[in-house]
Amino acid sequence: MLIRIYPENPNEKSIQQVVDVLIKGGLIIYPTDTVYGLGCDITNPKAIERICKIRGIKLEKANFSFICYDLSHISDYIKPIDTETFRILKKALPGPFTFIFNANNNVPKLLSSNKKTVGIRVPDNTIAREIVRVLGNPIISTSIHDDDEIIEYSTDPELIHEKYEDLVDLVIDGGYGDNEASTVVDCTTGTFDILRQGKGKLELYQ
Hints:
Layout (H helix, E strand, L loop, with lengths): L1 E3 L7 H12 L4 E3 L6 E3 L5 H11 L9 E3 L3 H4 L8 H10 L4 E6 L6 H4 L4 E5 L4 H10 L3 E5 L13 H8 L5 E4 L9 E4 L6 E4 L10
Parallel strand pairs: 1-8, 2-8, 4-6, 5-9
Antiparallel strand pairs: 2-3, 3-7, 4-7, 5-6, 9-10
Helix pairs in contact: 1-6
């Protein structure tokens, strides 16, 4: 199923339609402020396993991130952070960053496994954030790409739908996506270590 949602003013009924799919254990492809993402409800183990199968990865090796609505949402899943870290997050988010934190006990064991960390995103995209807000908890985020190389149809929701319509339950057409992934920042040691430089420029916020 392909549905059109306008990022400037997402239709409430359309957002609810997406949320209903997630509640039933469905998989969605949705826009972010970087590339399109493949996701599901983080509380549904079977849906998470379906994503692993699509990506061809083992669950214990998966590096999924959470799409959160805002900073208060983030604090539900990570261990306490200091004031300086919070200040930088407040300036950087919503934005094209994936911040890696030490996970707390609220993170589903299926996802934290032996790593004890969690990647957090608050994308500057109203569609993604509204889905999370209405759902009431984060959704999984894993980019639509081929290995490490972003493929051309990652930016075009209609072509994404053609490729994935038999694998997922719903694809959101939120306009053309970006072809640059988020900047990944490791915050687990109390510093900001950039693991992958992407769209976000963290130095602007220091």
